[in-house]
Amino acid sequence: MSLKIYNTLSRKKEPFIPIEDKIVRAYFCGPTVQDEPHIGHARAYITFDVLIRLLTYLGYKVKYVRNITDIDDKIIKKAFEQGVSPFEIAEKYFRAFYDATKELGLIPPNIEPRATGHIPEIIELIEKLIERGYAYVTKSGDVYFDVTKFKEYGKLSKQRIQDLIAGARIEPGEEKRNPLDFALWKHAKPGEPSWRSPWGRGRPGWHIECSAMSMKYLGETFDIHGGGADLVFPHHENEIAQSEAATGKKFANYWFHVGLVTIKKEKISKSLGNIIPIREVLRKYDPETIRLWAIQAHYRKPLEFSWDQLDQNEKILDDLYAVIFRAESLSKNAKDGKIGEIKKLIEEYKQRFLEALMDDLNTPRAISVLRQMIREVEKDLDKLNKAELSFYVKTVREIGWILGILQQSLDDRVIEKKKRGKNISNIIPDKYLKLDDISENLIELIIDIRDKLRKMKIYELADEIRNRLRKLGIILEDTKEGTIWKLS
Q1: Residue 191 placed within a domain
Q2: Going along 108-180, which residue ranges are E strands?
């Protein structure tokens, strides 16, 4: 069983063979921090996170780099409109991105370089391109890459350079030789951030930063370069051209692109006004539900966003958790014994799950196998001994980790759902006493009264309520998100 990845460069699945045995060097294009991260970003970063997790699970040591574009035309424009520094805008939205990735449970990159922190490396790379005849300096101090000098231009997007040039145009004020030439360095305009360079004060173009930073940390040739499907052209096409022109070596061996998120079959964009910030989705749904939604379709296909789909994925996740929590509850009082035939069944399902992921990260098939496995074993949960139940739960959580789901305890899951005002009765194990709606509402009312007593600093009476409820078998736990209850 070997991992196969679809390579955008070759347009086919290829066996994954890293440059160094058991070491993977991977680069994923990070955000331009000029606005809040949205649900389209979430899908791309969650997908790459699953790939990183799979590689780690398979025993690879992954050196993962994800950049931050913190200087850009859009950042500068927004800063001027708001009357603040571009660096203030960049830092604000970097924090929003960082918080979202942390809440979504993404494995952090080993290195998260910023464009503004790598100006010397960018200048050095541009100088090399000028020396080799691939770039030229204009009278105003701009530096452009001459696409006609790189004979393989268009090999990633599978477009002919003649057709691309014919469809491009030179904007007023640009001093390009060809309409398709792209900026490596932009001369400074009044009020803009700028850095010294051999061509005068200015700042880097968008494409050059990724080449400079990826090669600095991963080498002139590395294993995997990823990003959204919208980056294939021109961003990644230009990265290949400038990198390979500078080094004479292949830039990246595998190109991994994630399909776009659509809403009513339309691409997410500001002009259509259909951008949904990640923070808005996180207010309504827990991170694992969002992760499950993001990987329900194959990563190379477009993914339609709807609140109904998130509801469906939340129900699927709750159904899976309900079985896990029931197995954990049964295990506490189960008989001791050795693992019998059930082990073979569980390991067969685990193998099928891994085979799905090894086939170009086929997450829909992997999720289907995981659900089948849980349903199959659920039928005999009451018959399993302690060792079998433990092995079952351990295996489910182990392979669930690759997808970034099924990692919560019962208490954690309850807190996540109650924090968002969701029903918790469908995940509570059968062992727990089931209360009717009136009883549940009465308990919630008592908790509200106790919370008000605590705010009024009437602690003695609040403690008495807690102790009386404990004697009735109702356990209260005070958390940062509020008081939760469960039955002993």
Answers
A1: no
A2: 135-137, 143-145
